[in-house]
Structure formats: structure tokens, C-alpha cells
Structure prediction request, 220 residues.
Amino acid sequence: MTPATPLLILFIPFLLFFPACTDANTDDSSAAPVFISNEKPYKHIIQETVIIDSQEYIIPASWQGQRLGVKALTKPPLVQVPPEFVKDGGTIYLLPEACEAFKTMAEEAKQNDIAITIDSGYRSAWYQKKIYKRLMEKGKSFEEVARYVAPPGYSEHMLGLAVDFHPSDWRFVDSPVYPWLKKHAEGFGFSETYPESSPDNKPWEPSHWRYHSPSPLISE
Prediction:
């Protein structure tokens, strides 16, 4: 045996305990499978609420995330809509640009023998609470009212740009005003906020329309 032989014998046991390295790209079908969890990290969801007469109510899911960051408006900048275009000559206010656009549209409709009147214009969040309180005192729950009336703080009427045409219920669909608006209102800057095929599944509200304009008074 040559002098190098003992060194070779001592080196062989180390080969038995340390397997050879493999290429990182080699497919090892015998490797244990790796399981990846499909569970998403827990995310805390803060529910929006509103207080009416010291009672807190959870905003329905259909309205969550749609609260309007608008402060109560005053006169000015609000201006009165001409009584001839208001049901029973009542007092209704809008922002100047919306009021002017509405008057122009109403005059145009009048020339086509279409009599346009509105039931509602600007409403503050405080007034919206009064509507809820009145309906709830008649036996309706908060959730029932929220199906067809925007919760306080969520109504476009706060913007001073929205109107409810008369009659502000399902009868409006059958009035001559509705098809006229569907055909001409866009040309005056008005659009139906809650159409029959609303993408966010809001109830159809054919009488509710809004004037769209980049007013510096509005922060949505």
C-alpha cells in the first residue's frame, strides 16, 4: 500500500455523509410538495355610521364609502329657483350654475309644451335626518328608509346641484317630462343619477337628476 492509501480511506466516509450538489434548475420530482395558503391577511373594516336622535345606525353596504365631504351651504351662494318651476310655487334653492342650467332647460321644455316642475333641490344633512326621523316615526326601519332615501351625509341634494322632478315617485316615469329629459337633459348638463340599470344596484329613482359641473364649491 502506498503512503497515499490511508488518506483515501479516511476521505471515503465523508463522501457517504455529504451528497453531491445538484444543479438549481434540475427538476427533482421526488421533492416534497409546497403548499401555499390562499387565505388573505385579515383586514379590519370600519363600518360607517350615522346618528339620528342619539341613536347610532350602521350605513347599509350599498352606501358605504360614498359619504360626501360637503359642508352645509347658505344663501349666498345658493339662489332661489323661480317659483313657476317649483311645485305649488314653493321655495327651493340650488347653486347658481345649476339653477341657471335648470331654468334654461325648463324654458326649452315649455316651448315644447312640456311643463317641468321640481319637488326638491338643496337639502342639508340636517334636513335629511328630519326626513329619516319622520319616516321612522311612521314605523319604517332605518334599513327600509335607506333603500330609497340616501342616508344623511350621502345625498346629492347636499351638493346644491340635484333636483327631484315632480311627481317625485314612480308616477314620474309615466309623465311626459321623463322621456323628454331622457332625450334632452344631457344637453343641459343634467343626468339621471339612479337609472333603471344602476351599476351599483341602487333602487331606480327616475325623478332624481343632477347637474354636473366642476364647481370650486364642491369637494366630493
Observations:
- Residues 96-111 form the longest helix (16 residues).
- The first strand starts at residue 49 and ends at 52.
- The helical segments are 5-17, 96-111, 125-137, 142-146, 177-184.
- The two ends are 93 Å apart (CA to CA).
